[in-house]
Design a protein that fits this description.
Layout lengths: L42 E3 L21 E3 L4 E3 L11 E4 L6 E10 L2 E8 L11 E8 L6 E9 L5 E7 L2 E4 L9 E9 L5 E8 L10 E6 L5 E8 L7 E9 L7
Antiparallel strand pairs: 1-15, 2-5, 3-4, 4-15, 5-14, 6-11, 6-15, 7-8, 7-14, 8-9, 9-10, 11-12, 12-13
Length: 252
Amino acid sequence: MKKYIILFLLMFAVQAHAGGILMMGGKAPTAAAKYCDGKSVLACEDLEGSSSCYSGYSSNCRSAVSDLSCPSGTIAFNSTPIEGTYSLLLTPNTTNYCIIEYAFTAFSPFYIAYVMKTPASFALDTYENSMIAILYDSPGGSNLCNLAIYKDGAGNHYWSVTDGSGNTTGNVAITTATTYYHWLEYTKGAGNGVCNLYVSANTTKPGSATVSVTNGTSNSNIGALVIGAMNNHLSSLRVDNIQVNSSAIGNQ
């Protein structure tokens, strides 16, 4: 995959939404709460803001991202959202990728949470990993931890997590056109690094990791996050409600 070296300090501001016209004898009506309103995390993106997402793209982000790329593919922000009014739909073409990238001052431990919907079909080769989330030390830098969809010899698909030379593939099959809530947690370490994935069919975080790597060899801080379809073997990927924090994120 082509990597990008645009460095951008990610600073999401939680936006307060006030009401409109004051009615006689009553209170101003309160706008409906958005997902990120009041979230106690370092960054939150629910695609319900009023800032430009990236040059040439929609203006419904909380803050601009460092990269949004989909060569010859399509990016849509309001096509059958997972939650709220907008979600991000990434649809690569037959030869490329489709990704969104955030960059920020590097730190560890690093915690992210988001909701995603798998495509209507998979086109992975047998024994192939197709990455959908990558944690880098910096934009265009080293891949420290990644989450992928893996296809086994029987044609089943599973979540797979890699941290340096450490790798673990889960045993719960993934289904197409299904909404999954993800929590990915990274702590750097030389042989004892941790990258854990929690997966749920709803907003409740599981009590134990779905896929766990505890012998990771990535020993650097996280400075960039990429989410998307890293190749054309995923027909599309729908993403929403991305959170980043320096401590564990609870229920979504």
